[in-house]
Amino acid sequence: MSLRLLMVVRPASGGIRQHIITLARQLTRKGVTVAIAAPSTFLSTLPRDLAELASFPVEIAGSTNPAKDVLAAYHLTKVIAGGYDLIHSHGLRAGLVTSMSISGQHVPHLVTFHNLLSTGLATRSALTFIASCTQGFIAVSPAIAVSLKAMAPRIQRTVIPNGIPIAEFQRQPGARPSVFELDKNGPTVGCVARLSKEKGVDLFLGVARLIPDVHFLVAGDGPDLAMLQSLAPANVEFAGRVANVRDVYQALDVLVVPSRSEGQGIVALEALASGIPVVASNVGGLAEMLTDKKTALLVPVGDVPAIAQSVQHILHNPVLRDLLIENGRDLVARLYSDDQMLTSTLTVYDSVQLVH
């Protein structure tokens, strides 16, 4: 496919980072020429195969900062001058900076939103401006699409769920990875998340206190690391940012996604594809994607005792565990593969180019 694409990315880790990696790989395999403009910290963590793509450091701020936005837009303008058929921004911040860079020009532009947005005046104003400089919004879940419609009702919205490379998450039989301090004779319950309030890792620590005879593993990094470590009981291990998240899934018996807010929840998909039963908050994109007692156990947001009860129910009920594993794998295969995500994304790309 003959297409020169520029991806513009805000500071990102976790699920958004993985989405960018998966989409860039799939697009490249389809013959799309992909370039990435992003903060240097993001570019420096790209896998080796994507490090060969054209990349441009553009220091987009993670939160509102008018001075940094103007500077980032200035640098991005120079990148865009290289000539691209389409610009695909990821996240509100990237969409805003890109819109500032192309305002008044006829440059095809799409923005993907990965998280639920606040409804404040600043967000509404930013969306209104972005909408004037783009041909459409992509949302990774219906919940996000609904929030976008409420704040920018006139812009075209398409839901394209995150897709994952399913084959890469097939767990291998054998011993657990030695990189973790695991009890080889007991179960391990995990949480893979950015360590920030909305991900609810503090709730996960509360669950660990209620089940002291089970090993709990936290994988991820973020601004709340020190605070969470100070709160953690003795049966919790912090693994930090793990280079290969598949090592984490190889070690787990249950994954908990205790988010207070979640656009979709790509770690839940990865766990399901790995054959790991999931306990998740009944919120946002998680509630839309998962079915209680069929593909996961869903619990009220913030209900630590309910999470603990669900974890123990899975650990002590092999019939339920096997049902969740079988249905979870089927769900991912049917609806959340990277091939499906690629096909839907290319369809949107084609429609935008035809309009132009």
Topology (elements, then pairings):
Elements: E1 4-9, H1 14-29, E2 33-38, H2 40-43, E3 54-57, H3 66-80, E4 86-90, H4 92-102, E5 109-113, H5 121-131, E6 136-139, H6 142-151, E7 157-159, E8 188-192, H7 201-210, E9 215-219, H8 225-231, E10 236-240, H9 245-251, E11 254-257, H10 266-273, E12 278-281, H11 284-289, E13 297-299, H12 304-315, H13 318-335, H14 338-355
Parallel strand pairs: 1-2, 1-4, 2-3, 4-5, 5-6, 6-7, 8-9, 8-11, 9-10, 11-12, 12-13
Describe the structure concisely.
The protein has 356 residues and is α/β, with parallel strands linked by helices. The protein is built from 14 helices and 13 strands.
Task: Describe the overall structure.
With 356 residues, the chain is an alpha/beta fold. Helices cover 43% and strands 17% of the residues. β9, α8 (225-231) and β10 form a beta-alpha-beta unit. The longest helix has 18 residues, at 318-335.
Radius of gyration: 20 Å
CATH homology group of the largest domain: Glycogen Phosphorylase B
Class by SSE composition: alpha/beta
Percent helix = 40-55%
Mean pLDDT: 91
**Spans of 5+ residues with little confidence (pLDDT < 50)?**
none
Tally of DSSP β-strands? 13
CATH names the topology of the largest domain as: Rossmann fold
Number of helices: 14
Order of helices and strands: EHEHEHEHEHEHEEHEHEHEHEHEHHH
Strand fraction equals: 15-25%
Main sheet strand line-up: 3-2-1-4-5-6-7
How many domains? The number is 2
CATH C-level of the largest domain: Alpha Beta
From the 3D coordinates, which CATH architecture of the largest domain would you assign?
Answer: 3-Layer(aba) Sandwich
